[in-house]
Each structure stands twice: as C-alpha cells, then as structure tokens.
Design brief:
The chain is mainly β. The protein has one domain (2-90). It contains one helix and six strands, in the order ββββαββ. It is globular, with a radius of gyration of 13 Å.
C-alpha cells in the first residue's frame, strides 16, 4: 500500500463504455505505462468503482492509501497496465446502499 495526499475521481469513455478512473496526487505515481496517462488509473476496487460511477464526492480525508495491481495483459496488446485494486481512507467511506451494483 502507498499513501497519497489526495485523489480526483472521474469517468472516462472507452469503446463506448463508461469507466471509473482516479488521478492520485502526492508522489510521482506515473509508472511509465503507455495505457496510463497523467497518473490516471482505472478503478477496479468494487466499492470505489461504484462510488465513482455514482459521482460520489469526498470532502475531508485524513489519510488515503491505495494498492495498485496489474491487469491481465492478453486483451490489451500484451501490455500489463496498472489499476487501482484497493483504496482505503480515514475516515472510512461507507459502502453504497446498493452494493454491489
């Protein structure tokens, strides 16, 4: 797990589908991957994926920790790309009322 100062969540369109993404701020989180620009990472954490798609906004957080994993490379020209597989905050953000979607 790595600590970040803050994050910005947003959605992006890819092949006609809306995808949740986050930009992490704090350290230089650019991992030099051609499928990740400006430290914008796809969100695969089930709770946060749902929150980002619902445009949930976070006010004040004391701490932010995240885990980055690599996607399976086969469908993406054999390139493993980083994605957020876990995001943990203090205070903890509750799960959406309709979790999982």
């Amino acid at each position: 797990m790595v600590e970040a100062e803050e994050f910005v969540s947003f959605t992006d369109s890819w092949h006609g589908r809306i995808k949740p993404k986050m930009t992490l701020k704090g350290m230089d989180f650019d991992l030099g991957n051609p499928l990740t620009t400006n430290s914008d990472y796809p969100v695969k954490d089930c709770k946060w994926e749902s929150l980002v798609l619902r445009r949930y906004r976070v006010n004040e957080l004391k701490k932010i920790f995240f885990c980055i994993g690599l996607a399976t490379p086969a469908p993406y020209n054999n390139i493993e790309y980083p994605q957020i597989i876990g995001l943990h905050t203090d205070p903890e953000i509750p799960y959406p009322s309709a979790y999982p979607d």
